[in-house]
Amino acid sequence: MSDKKPISSVSDFVVRFANVNGSGSASANEMFARAILRHGVPVSPRNIFPSNIQGLPTWYEVRVTEAGHLGARGGVDMMVAMNPQTWDKDVAGIEPGGYLFYDSTKPMPSTKFRDDITVIGVPLTAITNSTYTDPRQRQLFKNIIYLGALSALLDMDPKLIEQLIGEQYKGKEKLLSSNVHALHLGRDWALQNLKCPIGLRVKKSDKVGDRIFIEGNSAAALGAVYGGATVCAWYPITPSSSVAEAFTAHCKKYRHDPETGKAKYAIVQGEDELASIGIVIGASWNGARAFTATSGPGISLMTEFIGLSYFAEIPAVIMNIQRAGPSTGMPTRTQQCDIIACAYASHGDTKHVLLFPEDPAEAFEFAAAAFDLAERLQTTIFLMLDLDIGMNHRLCRPLKWDDARQYDRGKIMTAEMLEEGRDFGRYLDVDGDGIPYRTYPGTHPTKGSYFTRGTSRDRYARYSEEGTVYADNMQRLVRKFETAQDLVPRPLQANAERPTKYGVIYFGSTSPAMDEAIGLLEARGHQLDRLRIRAFPFHSSVASFLAEHDFVYVVEQNRDSQLRQLIVNENGIDPVRLVPIVHYDGTPITARFIAKAIGDHQDHLKVTPLRKAVS
Amino acid sequence: MTYIAKPKFHHPGLKKNELGYTHRDYEGKISTLCAGCGHDSITASIIEACYELSIEPHRVAKISGIGCSSKTPDYFLGNSHGFNSVHGRMPSVLTGANLANRDLIYLGVSGDGDSASIGFGQFAHSIRRGVNMTYIVENNGVYGLTKGQFSATADRGSKSKKGVTNTDNAIDLVAIALQLGATFVARSFSGDKGQLVPLIAAAIGHKGASFIDVISPCIAFNNHAGSTKSFDYVREHNDAVNRLDVLVGRDPIAVDYAPGTVQVVEQHDGSKIALRKIDADYDPHDRLGAQTFLAKHAAKGQIVTGLLYVDPDAEDLHEHLNTVETPLNTLEADTLCPGSAVLDKINASLR
């Protein structure tokens, strides 16, 4: 039937599940990914889902990658086509030589298939219906049955899946045994009726190590718990809602007084994003560590308060789980599109600190650090995640915490210091770093009170519309932002094997695709030094990197090359030397895309690859 | 008048309260509002109430939005922290501050533009949540700082200073507060300190969302014939249902009124409110009755004032959230951070 040789690959392929939203497929699919991990083989799964609760198509893609490439790859080697609605598109999307797995209960016309793929039919509905009578059971176990069939086809160890089922349904014996039964129904049918395994196989390995498998939003929420956040105010918005939900779940486990059962945290679902950031600012003004989680439209609504935080110097942590904008945009698709909106959020001259974690491990670390930074710098800190990191399970290094670590509460003038006669000016730069001292409300009966306002005021917080007083304060805020440069996570540089005039700058969720792309580019003969930016304001090493290279590619997931704009603007450099590489269709950026875009540009520059020159 | 420094000397014979503070210790900077502004009378009433209650000034956090009314926290309790925040957003800032430290007294000062227009949502939701606060709206029916535009509490048919008739229906914040479950609801008039001071004192003693709508005429833009928020109009249409005294401290004022005319309400903080009934049938514990009473009197053009509703056993947001007694802003890593051993277990569960 095939005029193309079936793909043969061990522990390096992409399986995509096409499902209907709300059919209960998510947990079976996730179990598939986890089962492969238990083989010691890294996976990188991604949810591709609509802005819908039930009925619309949804996909779950699992990249099986022994080499550990965790970015999206592009292309599908095996399609598990469980959704008739998207059948044609799903079948068309399979790589030549790939595999189609489908429910063969009802015969399909041959025109619905392709000649260049291997078609694997399993009568899932028939098996399910002959075993189960309850409609909901039929739907749920059908998912486990295909998981069983896939385990046979892909040569997976069923014991490892049974182990996972055992962990998931620990203490619920009935559910446990019925799931294992369903798994074997599918597996046995495949073993008896199909040629197992197919060309795609999972082989046990040891490439996972001690890494953990976690969603970025959950890791960021855990970072907030470890970082000492006590107040969380939020308004539901995809893809950020699971941050607040995870924070709630973590707090329920780890933040109740064992004796009284009382909560050492307060979580409020605000009436909107304005109230959420207002609550955060009120709580931070009063000395608690507070944060909100939101996405682009929420940032737009919060900007007036963000300006207040900047000007009145009140700490705040905002986790922005970016999605494709503008406006409602594509609310369930990923982008890095709020860089400019956050860096300069609010009216007047404002600048804000942005942190760019690359994965859940950094989301955890940066989330915890954000509270130290917010209190040290007395301003808003943005934790810039995106849907790709936030809502997908990502394999990453284990989370770490140093028990000796104390929170940096910043410059707080205490009652004792006031009693000693220390001069307290709320906006007085005593240390030359632009950071003044603050007092918490209620500190002292007669000393240290001040009136916080968004209007201009002098160094002692007294209202003033004097131009020199206003400018003095604005200059101090610039000094404070310069101080921030050395407090935020520094960029990480990785140089090519041989010296090169070309560099690439990237950040956030682009990381795994970039790492993989470097290998592809090297294979094409292109050498590039890499700089991963982890925060704004930019450390001086960014300017050095630009100075050391003739051309620097800036890879990002938005249309207007926003990070590049920020670099050009903040470093005052010739924009021609910064080449934008942008990917913004809402899907995660891939190594293939980056390698092609940069490779083509390099070719266009008529660079003779070294390898060709010597051969 | 900000260029005039407020003199610090005071008469040595000034009366002192239980804590040894005089009136002057509860004052703030010199007001920059217009001479005769109703808001300044409210400021004076807040000072009086805090003095009478012997509150430590620095244990109060005063939070406001934007507008003439929102400037006033600078003019009282100079030893308290104040926060003149964002237009219409006082309620959220106050909610956050309250969550951070439940031990302070929260005084929210707002205006009719701030609470009935731009901040209508935040007003409503802070009341719904039962934030423990005293929320005072200094209600003059007009935007003063921007020179005389109608606000959302301006009555339909009332006239602006320029002679324009308002065609929009008015929002009655008291009616809304009642409907949303405020557990202390009052209305008063800035020109009646005798009624206002004990209302503010009682509101501060109440644990839960206290709301006071104070009609406060704008001398510059809304004190003319045709306005329903002028001194003359409010005096003529003021229909007080009760007067009250707040009894605190060592020397409770002897209540000596004719039987049946006084109702004593014991508050959560131990203070007592003695309500002298003016309208014999008015029951301030009947939320539905209060709503009906208000609606009927509003239809007749009357402004009902007094303590309109109180639930002395109210719960606040902290009780709903079951938060610890210790203020959250004092907790440190030793109690907040689960530590590395727990993290190792979390890591293990994610493999």
Automatic annotation (TrEMBL), chain A:
Transmembrane segments: none annotated. Gene3D superfamilies: 3.40.50.920, 3.40.50.970, Pyruvate-ferredoxin oxidoreductase, PFOR, domain III. Residues 223-387 form the Pyruvate flavodoxin/ferredoxin oxidoreductase pyrimidine binding domain. Keywords: Oxidoreductase. The keyword Cell cycle does not apply. One of its GO terms (molecular function) is oxidoreductase activity, acting on the aldehyde or oxo group of donors. The keyword Oxidoreductase applies. Pfam families: POR, POR_N. InterPro entries: 2-oxoacid/accept_OxRdtase_asu, Pyruvate:ferred/Flavod_OxRd, Pyrv/ketoisovalerate_OxRed_cat, Pyrv_Fd/Flavodoxin_OxRdtase_N, Pyrv_flavodox_OxRed_cen, THDP-binding, Transketo_C/PFOR_II. Residues 22-187 form the Pyruvate/ketoisovalerate oxidoreductase catalytic domain. It comes from the Bacteria. GO terms for biological process: response to oxidative stress. PANTHER family: BLR6743 PROTEIN (PTHR32154:SF29), PYRUVATE-FLAVODOXIN OXIDOREDUCTASE-RELATED (PTHR32154). NCBIfam families: OAFO_sf (TIGR03710). This is 2-oxoglutarate ferredoxin oxidoreductase subunit alpha.
TrEMBL record, chain B:
Transmembrane segments: none annotated. Residues 66-214 form the Thiamine pyrophosphate enzyme TPP-binding domain. Keywords: Oxidoreductase. InterPro entries: 2-oxoacid:Fd_oxidoreductase, THDP-binding, TPP_enzyme_TPP-bd. One of its GO terms (molecular function) is oxidoreductase activity, acting on the aldehyde or oxo group of donors, iron-sulfur protein as acceptor. GO terms for biological process: cellular respiration; small molecule metabolic process. This is 2-oxoglutarate ferredoxin oxidoreductase subunit beta. It comes from Bradyrhizobium sacchari. The lineage of its organism: Bacteria, Pseudomonadati, Pseudomonadota, Alphaproteobacteria, Hyphomicrobiales.
